[in-house]
Amino acid sequence: MYGIINQSIQQLIITEFGEETWLKVVQESKLDTTDFENHEVYDDTYTYALAEAAAKILNTDINTILNRFGEFWIMDISIKKYPALMYGGGTTLKEFMNNLPKFHNRVALSYPNLTAPEFKVIDDGNNLQIEYHSQRDGLTPMMNGMLIGLTKMFNQEKVVVELISNKGENGLTYDLFRMTWS
Ligand code: HEM
Fold first, then answer.
1. Which of 19, 34, 38, 123 is most open to solvent, judged by the fewest CB atoms within 10 Å of its CB?
2. What is the pLDDT of residue 76?
3. Given the CA of residue 115, which atom of ligand 1 is nearest to it?
4. Could you tell me if the CB of 143 is within 6 A of ligand 1?
5. Does the domain at residues 84-180 carry the CATH identifier 3.90.1520.10?
């Protein structure tokens, strides 16, 4: 994955737990480098090793870290670093979500070697079903955190985000999420 992902994990740990905790995570991860460049592609094992190490040092599990990271990614990275891209995605949460399948096409203009996720969004007029197709495993909690981050971005925190079905369940080749408006 592009270095911006690993840099953002670093930023999350430093912002929330301080520099010393980050240094412990670095040590625990046993990686040969943790000095990541935004636009350089690193093997995915770097990202998973950092998340695993953070979970260990913070006494929690990797899914909690990934979920928190997903929310941080939207609120503290994407909106701040790429406001035009984010606010250009839609003026309401629903509009943004309906445009989500095309979102990474624009991201790919600055990150051409992206292995992007694919999304299909089904709008029944009231609620949304979101298919998350990924070539990677284990990132479902990160996607969950990102969806929660998007509800916060649009001040729609009453919208409920739920994982309905996991990839692999009932022969599904994707994770299925639902956003419900009350
Ligand atoms: C300006 C905003 C965004 C940027 C710059 C961005 C960029 C990226 C990058 C660099 C990756 C790593 C993939 C790789 O390096 O091969 C990624 C992955 C991902 N992004 Fe985005 N993204 C943005 C917004 C979003 C939003 C709004 C969502 C909505 C849910 C999202 C969902 C994901 C997911 C789920 C992955 C994991 C990839 C996988 O499953 O393989 N991203 N994105």
1. 19
2. 98
3. 16
4. yes
5. yes
